[in-house]
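forwarding from the other thread:

> can someone predict this with glutathione?

sure thing
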Amino acid sequence: MMKLYFDPQSRSQVAKWMLDEAGVDYEIVPTLIREKAHKKPDYLKINPAGKLPALVDGRTRVFENAAICMYVAEKFPQARLAPSVGSPDRGRYLSLMVYSTAQLEPSMGDSLLGLHSNNSARGWTHFEQAKDAVERELGYGPYLFGAQFTAADVMIGSMFIWHRAFGGRSNRPKIDAYIDRLQARPKGMKFG
Ligand SMILES: N[C@@H](CCC(=O)N[C@@H](CS)C(=O)NCC(=O)O)C(=O)O
């Protein structure tokens, strides 16, 4: 059975949300940050960055939420959590998965931490510009791929859910309505 290395008070909840949406069996391996379990040599063999979460599936190990979500979507195509390989939407899907973690996550982190820099040489820009990009991609919704809920909603949505949990407001009615929809899903991401 797949094993999810998990601390409930961490981004491990993103991978858990994805696995729950896929409706598959997995085992939770408690790996608590406060106990420094994520820095132990055995865990570093799974995720060399010493961060949570990580997923182990037989001889396969996957770290970074975006990779875990893509792995799960690919392994369980019947869950329809990604546009299929070869479909015209596939490129946009891959782009949004990488965008979520390469640009949205750091710009949101800057915003929460009050680190304001407009130096786009870092590879990402201000959180407000990231919100613009998400609004453009949302179109008429309800999800990023219209009626089909996908791993891209897990990755992009979880960033905004996390932002909310830390008291941030998006101040974008369209994004707020989207996040409300995601949180209302029966298997939506939980915290703590
Ligand atoms: N981009 C990574 C972020 C992982 C991450 O930063 N995890 C945090 C918990 S929310 C962590 O393990 N921090 C502990 C540390 O770095 O020592 C992902 O999505 O997997």
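The chain has seven helices and four strands. thats all i got for now
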